DNA sequence: CCCTAAATGAAAAGGCTTTTCAATAAGAGA
DNA sequence: TCTCTTATTGAAAAGCCTTTTCATTTAGGG
């Protein structure tokens, strides 16, 4: 969770132009409390830039994902959409009810993965972990 | 990894008919060393039953998934296809190179998930974990 | 064997994503 | 500022992949 200027700076540092449509998409992702599908990003993004097109949403997400600044969030029941993320190895905790998402930076799977390596003979190179739960607000209802 | 008769028995126990197309799909999944896409299951399945149709592949996978006997396997780079699985909570280790898959039955994330709950305020209800690595054969190359 | 409900596959419909392409706009350099 | 170049844009078309529809077939209990 950064602010617009930080994100914009990282964007430009890669040599990408910061156009109106792209600004609208960044603002939309920054304002979102949960992962958004491309169609949802389009809809919300048009409040910032009315002529925004869906193709640009896809193209911008592709760049953000390559930069490690956004990531698809999906659980067993499918893809929940895209959320901003910190570059590097992180995980997401998603609320089952309202889909609010929190990013987890550390991960302590070392011992477990060691045992997996031992049991299977595989050399472990990476993993994908998504956690589901109930956010504090939804627990009250 | 069960045998055909065990799988067939579980299938019938749910009251489903065991048709030729379905037999072909089960045999295909049993013979697969890696997750297969619906199209791949169709292609391989037609060696067992020539008239197999793609729609039946989708419908059969849907039932298998609901029974917990098959599961979509996907990593960060997308869905790798469907693999047979043990009902209940398990994980998959997928080879980066040849996609060979091994199922992991135990999982020791308890402490880590407790710390996530504490840090985020979420009540944790589940998780989705896929592990990638290099299988013993691919390590030699 | 029959009989019936479940299952099947072709074709159509539906969705989502990517490609194409002519028009536009960012922003480096003058 | 003003130009100029090239990246970027959005509409439309194309391309998947998945689901629905429906007339026909088949499994398997009786
Ligand atoms: Mn991790
Ligand atoms: Mn687990
Ligand atoms: Zn919630
Ligand atoms: Zn391998």
Secondary structure layout:
The structure is a homodimer of 141-residue chains.
Chain A: H1 4-13, H2 20-31, H3 38-45, H4 54-67, E1 70-75, E2 78-84, E3 91-95, E4 101-104, H5 110-120, E5 123-134, H6 136-139
The complex binds manganese (II) ion (2 copies) and zinc ion (2 copies).
The structure holds a DNA duplex (30 and 30 nucleotides).
Report on this model:
- The structure is a homodimer of 141-residue chains.
- Chain A is α+β, with helices and mostly antiparallel strands.
- Chain A has a single domain, classed as Orthogonal Bundle (Arc Repressor Mutant, subunit A).
- In chain A, the strands form 2 sheets. In chain A, strands 4-3-5 form a 3-stranded mixed sheet. In chain A, strands 1-2 form a two-stranded antiparallel ribbon.
- In chain A, strand 1 and strand 2 form a beta hairpin.
- In chain A, helix 2 crosses helix 3 and helix 3 crosses helix 4.
- The longest helix of chain A has 14 residues.
- Chain A starts with a helix and ends with a helix.
- The mean pLDDT of chain A is 94.
- At the A-B interface, helix 5 and strand 5 of A face helix 5 and strand 5 of B.
- One manganese (II) ion binds next to strand 5 of chain B.
- Chain A binds a DNA duplex (30 and 30 nucleotides) through helix 2 and helix 4.
